[in-house]
Specification:
- With 177 residues, the protein is mostly helical.
- The chain has one domain.
- It is built from 7 helices and 2 strands, in the order ββααααααα.
- It has a two-stranded antiparallel ribbon with strand order 1-2.
- α3 crosses α4.
- The longest helix has 31 residues.
- The protein is flat.
């Protein structure tokens, strides 16, 4: 399929993507905890912009759900990194499954936005940005899917394979002149 992802080896790109997922989810958790601690202030701010009453319990429930999703995202990204590092493709599968589901939902969302633009003629920029995001997400998924299959076949990057000193075939090659 592809050999590089964003000009990086697939394994390096996997580490970067997993690390970015962890960093972003950690930031979301941090701000979610702050929002939950100041739920009344958050609700007042939302009410000011939407001009409707917001139930504090519903807002807290939504923030807790988002918090749980962020924790799950950290676990999935960690599994992706460990799957690449240990060359265990089974650890990559949960990340791939959830990302695949997110792509399907994003396609439905983008199609809805496109229909809205075609019918109303408004909202072109958000639609274009959503399609760009969808394209980047699909590109990343194809890269991780290719890496998954390389690891399954045992044809991952030679640098990764040569560092496996427990394998007598590769360990002998490390010290031979």
């Amino acid at each position: 399929m592809i050999n590089k992802l964003f000009c990086m080896r697939l394994s390096t790109a996997g580490y970067v993507i997993g690390g970015m997922n962890i960093a972003i989810s950690s930031t979301v958790i941090f701000f979610n905890v702050i929002a939950l601690a100041n739920i009344d202030e958050v609700a007042r701010t939302i009410e000011k912009y939407i001009h409707e009453k917001v139930k504090r319990s519903d807002l807290a429930y939504a923030l807790k759900l988002y918090l749980a999703g962020s924790v799950i995202s950290i676990v999935l990204a960690s599994m992706l990194i460990m799957g690449i590092r240990k060359k265990r493709p089974g650890l990559m599968l949960p990340w791939m499954a959830i990302t695949g589901l997110a792509i399907v939902l994003n396609i439905c969302y983008c199609l809805g936005l496109l229909i809205n633009v075609l019918l109303d003629g408004a909202g072109f920029l958000p639609t274009a940005i959503s399609f760009l995001y969808l394209g980047i997400t699909i590109y990343i998924y194809i890269g991780m899917y290719t890496l998954y299959h390389q690891i399954c076949r045992g044809n991952s990057n030679p640098r990764i394979e040569s560092s496996d000193q427990n394998n007598p075939e590769t360990a002998a090659g490390l010290y031979s002149i």
